[in-house]
Please model this.
Amino acid sequence: MSTLALMLSTPLMQRALLVALLVGLAAPVIGTYLVQRRLALLGDGIGHMALTGVAAGWLVGNAAALTPHDALAVPGAAVAAVVGAVLVETVRARGRTSGDVALALIFYGGIAGGVLLIGVAGGTSANLTGYLFGSVSTVTTADLWLTVGLAVVILAVGLGLRPALFALCHDEEFARASGLPVRALNLTVAVLAALTVSVAMRVVGVLLVSALMIVPVALAQLLVRSFRATMALAMVVGVVVSVVGLSVTYYVPLAPGATIVLLAIAGYAVASVVRPLLGRPGTGQDPHLDVADDVEVEEVR
Model:
């Protein structure tokens, strides 16, 4: 108990736990829309693009003699991620390149740009390791306030526009026929995904950020049916695995990002085993148990 109190009284862990809480709450919101649209890997592509923004922020901070030199890394990642997300959505919407090819271009271009710019800034690719795999223990007060601001935007837009975004993700043609601004909503989803990547980068890293957006949603889909319930349960799962995973790494010397993601995957495995035992609401059950069956099948002799 004294160790827990010591952990909660440490300013470093207070900042890290608050960031983990916000990331666990916000990431599954946009992840629910991406899973519904079958764009689960979009977060990965945007994450690689964010790596170029991290290196660009490092380069600018170095040129401006800021301390530390990576003070502009997260803002740079946010800008690069938004630009990358808008490019992917524009290419996909115009249909000149398929979605997977557009994502591949972002993947390779993002990594190459990051390594190239970090070299120009006088650093090495090792300086990018903390951003690749997460380094929540290095969260500064400025990072915390930036995370709070981005998380508030993601939650406000993601939850506030849920009816319109659900219509878009469920059937884009129906949304267009209903008079919804489909192109603006598509760009909104892409920008929200980019901001989520920027928020989660400090916790799980750009290589694992997509897992925190997608795995809690996949777990929730095993247990509940409705869109609203899936999003709500995914947010709960995201918060639990983020806070518990980070707390575990306080006692055991493990990588926080990898621990959080593996906890989420373990939860998915447990839910996969438990689901057949619980049954899924609305499937395999007679909806009118009080009414006699109106069809009788004659036994075949």
Notes: The two ends are 70 Å apart (CA to CA). Residues 287-291, 294-301 have pLDDT under 50 and may be disordered. DSSP finds 13 helices and no strands in the chain.
